[in-house]
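Quality-control log, excerpt.
Job 1 of 2 completed; input and output follow.
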Amino acid sequence: MRTRRTLLISVSASALVATAATGGLAVVATASPAPTATGTIEVSTAAELKSALAGASPGDTIHLADGTYTGNFKTSTAASSGSRITLTGSSKAVLTAGGGYGLHLNGASYWTVKGITVTGGQKGIMIDSAKSVVVDTVTVHGLDMEGVHFRKSSTDGVIKGSRIYDTGNDGRGMGEGVYVGSAGGVSDKSDNVQILNNTIGPDVGGEAIDLKEGTTGGKVTGNTFDGKGLTGNNYDDSWIDVKGNNYVIENNTGKNTTNNGYETHSQQSGWGCGTVFRGNRSTLSGATGDKQLAINVTNFSGSCRTTVYASNTVTGGKGLTNITVTP
């Protein structure tokens, strides 16, 4: 009589366990995510997502099935300009954190995050020391503090086509929709960040967009702002606060604000300069509307200029701006 034997074979490339027995071979999949032949890693659980983020390689796509992914998710793997890493799913693929960062890209240059929802944490998507990160058509909401933050000299980033609302729920006025740079110095060179065609608000506790001193050369265009829910804490009383240099703010639409629509400030000497405002449409109706400006420039001189074009328009409030308008 022959002795029956069972053999377990680990196949790392496909994360399968094969069971060989007398009379045949049975193959059983484990819980680990498996890349397909095209480099797409399909995941459907929080454990699989953490594994995929840790093990991703340039050129990979991590695809999230619809569902809830509970935890704090992070990666420090960098891709390259010619071989990006993509994390993608529908808006029904929801990263839900109980605090901390929902998704942290720490040194993870050349990533694209597309389609998913991030909610429930202290901060939504945090991008640190990472070049050319693209955040595309995501939904970010239900946070204690800011929604999406480009920080620690994260240059050439893009956030586009996304929706951010219901932030700043801890009441400290730290609920900016999109935050670029760091406060308190000029060492954070998160330069050339583009903020394009997003919907930010309502119930965003800070500014829709805060552009910090030390950052340069970004572009804010085609966005829609609803300031309903601004707390007014820490002077959070406008849709955009520009403290960096040489930004272009154009073709945005805003309504509901506790003070002005757009503001520039010089928090550090030589900063808050060179901003261009063009084609923005502001609605300043409300109980305090007779005191508001669409564009309030707090520091204007020969060495620190701001340009406000006549293509900007305003309804309600005190007027368009407090400086001479350029035809």
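Job 2 of 2 completed; input and output follow.
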Amino acid sequence: STHEPLFGKTLLYIANIGQHEDFDAARKKAEKLGAKKVFIEDLRSEFVQEFIWPALQANAVYEDRYLLGTSIARPCIARRQVQIARSEGAQYVSHGATGKGNDQIRFELTCYALYPHVQVIAPWRIPEFYSRFRGRKDLMEYAETHGIPVPVTPRAPWSMDANLMHISYESGILENPKNHAPSDLYQMTTNPEDSPNEPDVLEIDFAKGERHFPQICSIVSELFLLWFLSGKHGVGRIDIVENRFIGMKSRGIYETPGGTILLHAHLDIETFTMDREVRKIKQGLGIKLSELIYNGFWYSPECEFVRHCIDKSQENVEGRVQLSVFKGQVYILGRESPKSLYNEELVSMDVQGDYDPSDASGFIRINAVRLREHNRLQGAAQKKH
């Protein structure tokens, strides 16, 4: 009732970012519920090019394990929502994210960054709403009573979010971190125990740190193939308790099959072609970017700066990586690159090359100075006691 002006003209927007969804049914459902206009936008190519690749170039992994499949999709989805809102003259946008999670932050920070005067309606934060619907169980009962089809059922009450990058599972019995995930939960990957007994061997080409495709129009179909090959071997499953930006810990289960392969391959070719000291700096930037993505700051000045630096670092990250996928694991087999910093003659145990071994003596002595001084100080302190 406090938002009565909204309901003069309700528009529905759905982003196709590679999830398995019946968009035709979604359109009919929206029209039945009173939407005056329905926008179903295919964002798959821009999602890969403008969001997934920059994250993979950065080797962005949140808290050492999460490849940010949901997090990186939110600015892509919200950006198009804002574009539609502006073009339609809408002053309000809405989303269904809960008041406890990260997605509300990611959606809304993008909206405010790109459409500063927009007003956001978040039903889960409206007292009249959350006093009536205390949680997902109440919503499921309401949907059943009113004949509204929803993918969540009392038998599988977890929250799922899927796209080209991954699928996530939260809520329901997963809220107890001790509970094992049901074996029928996973949708993208085969149980490694049931996966093929022979590996698949792949070659992945990179140019400037990006997965190279012969034609950009093939990007989505080739990604699906990569996802399929890795998924059938059970690659990319993780089960973690992570720190939400809002201040609480949550348990999440993620499947990121193709992304896991690309991360391993990119890490390998990057180490092969990038200067050691540049890579140390870049590693820190990757951690920073993962936090910015997770916390919803994709459209912030600091994130723009970090992405620019990472993009610069990728200029010589070029080459081919051979790898195999087998029983839930990715194994690097070999690599080659015209930009390699690996000098076979220099490093060889059989050829001296352009290197004088006696130089190492002075190098070692110089590096031992501070160790000797530390030992001297420790010895003096022990004598005093």
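Post-run check on job 2. The radius of gyration is 25 Å.
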